[in-house]
Each structure stands twice: as structure tokens, then as C-alpha cells.
Specification:
Strand content: 35-45%
Number of strands: 6
Structural class: alpha+beta
Largest sheet: 4 strands, antiparallel
CATH architecture: 2-Layer Sandwich
Number of helices: 3
Shape: globular
Low-confidence stretches: none
Length: 97
């Protein structure tokens, strides 16, 4: 897989209270493409942030059933990647490289 395709694997970092607690343990959470694999996520994070990845765990979150003005619908699902970095590495979101 070339670098351009790897860059498109990561959709966005997910930042919330839960992920902030995970960051204390050197673990970061990203929304990824639905068909992304652990190996692709590992390579994309290492390429984009110049860090070494220790482990990757993937989670599929199904979209919720909701209704709007009586019309039933479904929100989109998301695929998350929990990326644990090796000791001594970290990612600064919003900081200049």
C-alpha cells in the first residue's frame, strides 16, 4: 500500500473524556476507514506521526436507530482504532511539528 493510501486510512483523532484517560496510558483513539486493517492503521500512524506502535485494537460501533419528525432513520456507524505506542513516544494533537 502506498503512502497516499495510508494517509487516507485515518479519518480523524477522537478526543473525549474517555480518550483523554486513555492518553495517560500512551493509548490514542482514531476513527478509521470501515475496511481498514490493524496493519494498515499501524503503518499509517507510524508514517504520519513518526512514532513506533506497540499494539492496535479495532472496534466497530454500530449506528443508532433514531427518528426525526416521526420518520425512522439510522445514524452512521464508525470504526475505531485504539493505538498503543511504545514507551518514550507520544502524539501531540494541535501542536506544531
Amino acid at each position: 500500500m502506498n503512502q497516499e493510501q495510508l494517509i487516507n486510512v485515518l479519518v480523524s483523532p477522537l478526543v473525549s473524556e474517555k480518550t483523554a484517560r486513555a492518553m495517560e496510558n500512551n493509548q490514542y483513539v482514531f476513527a478509521v476507514q470501515p475496511r481498514a486493517t490493524k496493519d494498515e492503521v499501524r503503518k499509517a500512524v507510524e508514517l504520519m506521526f513518526r512514532v513506533e506502535v506497540a499494539a492496535v485494537q479495532m472496534v466497530n460501533i454500530a449506528g443508532k436507530l433514531k427518528s426525526f419528525r416521526g420518520t425512522p432513520g439510522r445514524r452512521n456507524g464508525v470504526r475505531k482504532a485504539y493505538v498503543r505506542l511504545k514507551p518514550g513516544f507520544n502524539i501531540q494533537f494541535g501542536a506544531a511539528p
